[in-house]
Amino acid sequence: MSGKEDNKEMNEQETAATETEETAEAENEVTLSEDELKALCREHVCPACDVMGEAKEERLRALAETENIKKRLARETEELKKFAADSILSDLLPVLDNLDLALDHAQNLDACKDFVIGVDMTRKMFLDTLGKHGLKAVGKVGDEFDPNFHEAMGMAQVADLPDNSIAQIMQRGYVLKERVIRPAKVMVNKLS
């Protein structure tokens, strides 16, 4: 025989041996049902084993973290809904300030009473509309000074008012659903 034929015969023998091994492996392969596989796993993993305990703890931590994320997202979504109008209402405050200034200026004028009444009605309607969205004015003369809602611009001495109360409002302050949009700029009464 030639060298070519020997090589060919050797390759055929190797191929046949490989096929025989694969067939033997396939015959030795065991097919288990899912229940049998679970039972086999339980037999080989001890319930008191550290690996099992660590896996349970990790699973519980992951579930707790997922629950915390859900709660945080729900809280943030509610907060976003609650204060969505914040920037729009803040932009409307100068309009309200100008209406207040017009009324303060026209208070002593008798010439345009009907006009002043119209501006006052417009201001009240504007305030009612903003109030429907949760905006409220803070700070009245005589209220106690609260740095959370008021910004002190200076001090005044008014005998009729208690100490540390608002003596004068320089610019109205507003809150939107308990959040300060703009603090009231006030003069604080100091008797001594």
From TrEMBL:
Residues 1-31 are annotated as: Disordered. Residues 1-11 have a biased composition (Basic and acidic residues). Its main location: cytoplasm. The keyword Chaperone applies. Keywords: Chaperone, Cytoplasm, Stress response. Residues 19-31 have a biased composition (Acidic residues). It is found in: Cytoplasm. GO terms for biological process: protein folding. The keyword Acyltransferase does not apply. One of its GO terms (molecular function) is protein homodimerization activity. Pfam families: GrpE. One of its GO terms (cellular component) is cytoplasm. It comes from the Bacteria. Homodimer. Participates actively in the response to hyperosmotic and heat shock by preventing the aggregation of stress-denatured proteins, in association with DnaK and GrpE. It is the nucleotide exchange factor for DnaK and may function as a thermosensor. Unfolded proteins bind initially to DnaJ; upon interaction with the DnaJ-bound protein, DnaK hydrolyzes its bound ATP, resulting in the formation of a stable complex. GrpE releases ADP from DnaK; ATP binding to DnaK triggers the release of the substrate protein, thus completing the reaction cycle. HAMAP family: GrpE. Belongs to the GrpE family. PANTHER family: GRPE PROTEIN (PTHR21237), GRPE PROTEIN HOMOLOG, MITOCHONDRIAL (PTHR21237:SF23). NCBIfam families: PRK14140.1, PRK14150.1. This is Protein GrpE. It comes from Maridesulfovibrio salexigens (strain ATCC 14822 / DSM 2638 / NCIMB 8403 / VKM B-1763) (Desulfovibrio salexigens).
